[in-house]
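[DERIVE STRUCTURE TOKENS]
===
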Amino acid sequence: MQTSKFYAAVQEESERFREPIEALSEEIREFEAGDMSEYHGLLERTEKFLGQLTDEGLVLKNFSWPEDKINSIREALKRNLMLQKVATQQQEHAGMLEALKARQDGELPLDLRDPREVEKWLVQSMDQFTQSSKALDHLKRTLEETRPRYYKHSIPFPFDTLTQVGAGCLLYAKAHMSVILGFIAGHPTSPLRRNMLRRGFEFAFRVQQFANLTDDGATELVEQIFAQLEATHQQTMDQLRSPTPRNLRKHPTPAVAQQLGSSAVLEPIVEE
């Protein structure tokens, strides 16, 4: 009984909305624009209209509905929005980079004196790159299928922007390394130093591999990070070679314990 009512409603809507569906179908087939932003209005009107239907698929099945084109428009708008989001993130990283170069501390969106705030920003930067690189990689892998389909429907998707945004990923690594170096400059003895440098070096390598490029600025920053890593390693080796004060062997501070490493064994002192 419920099934009969459902299909009766579908049939009734097919008749009641025949004229607006045919008009909307024609509008979608004929619609062309020079910019992706102009497609938002068409998609909003379409979604609002389809929201009235009991079952969109069953109702539209009775018409010559341009399903492939409207689905391509939905997809293209979503992907374009993603590109804009990534480009905005990259501009924020570029702003951080420029502020650090100019030493404009008051204009930085974080306080380099606060280890927690710095760590939070570094983690956020890595997360943003991870999400962006996955989305960009998916777009690149599907280009062979999407490019001719978008051209077929005259959808002006900015494929050139995809290349530019892909190259812009280098900004994630450059800003990331600059923040680390800025923090370490003000905290030369911080126990976070070694781990930050190691992660920064590995992150820069991962970003450069994805972007498949580098530039003089990125190379210089990598060299600075590597030099700091070598210096930190040498300091640790020097500490391990030198006699450990009796009071530190008994009660090492957290910073010293971290410098010694989790594998270091502190021998007990036998009182004579």
Notes: Confidence is low (pLDDT under 50) at residues 247-251, 259-272. The CA atoms of residues 167 and 183 lie 26 Å apart.
